[in-house]
Amino acid sequence: MSFTLYNAPQSTCSQRVRFTLHAKGLEFQENRLDLFSGDQLKPEYLAINPNGVVPALVHDDVPVIDSAVIMEYLEDIHPNVVPMRPKDPKESARMRAMLRFIDEVPAPAIRIPSYNLAFLPHFQAMSAEAFQTLCDSKPLRREFLMKMGRSGFPQEDMDEALGRLGRAVTRLNDWLIENGGPWMMGHQLTYADIALMPVIVRMDDINLHEMWADKPMVSDWLAALKAHPAFEATYYHGSLLTEKYPHLQALRDERAQQPAARSA
User: Fold this and answer.
1) Terminal Cα distance for the chain, rounded
2) How far is CA 58 from the centre of its chain?
3) What pTM, to 2 d.p., does this model score?
4) Which of 5, 50, 59, 193 pairs with 253 at a CA distance of 20 to 30 A?
5) CB 173 within 8 A of CB 179
């Protein structure tokens, strides 16, 4: 079987699929796209994924698009290789309900602080005409970029996004308590964990980890994911925003020093 993954290092949806492939031990060729250079909008990629977003997995010359679909597809064709979907139909339905919540609430919410804190300078450097052209070229995210504009999302949008992320952390904590951990459904690592993982890793990376300071099971869950053999291969250097954007790392370092300064 031949797998080619078209993705981007910092893309949270790409990170889901990279983790799944590595966790299942499936060999694949990785094609890294530069999203700010518009690789995802080139005709050759749009022929694979007409939505113009990453990731896309090509399996034996057949494209499979959307990260949640790709994860389930890999389970369909390799159900006995490190199973990540419960075999019991009722439990599988429960996992899919978790996935639906994740894709409805935290997955879109994390984009707003990510764009405001990390990506915005790319758009601020554009002329109004160039920015409009970019927005119009986006098959799936045109309205998202138009709402952001070249000045970023307003504070009310940031507050709403942070509220959604906070609710997701609470829901994660509830699932862990209900099922006893270490994973969201108990002893089996499932696609629900993998789907939420990039959101929580991103929150940790951009200094939102205080949202689970009083929730030790969430901290333990994240630590368990970071200890998983697939994590390091998934998060190679450049996958975290603080590794790509020095101003974010400087802000993180500054905030890390603030409690020490107050206690002194």
Assistant:
1) 59
2) 20
3) 0.93
4) 193
5) no
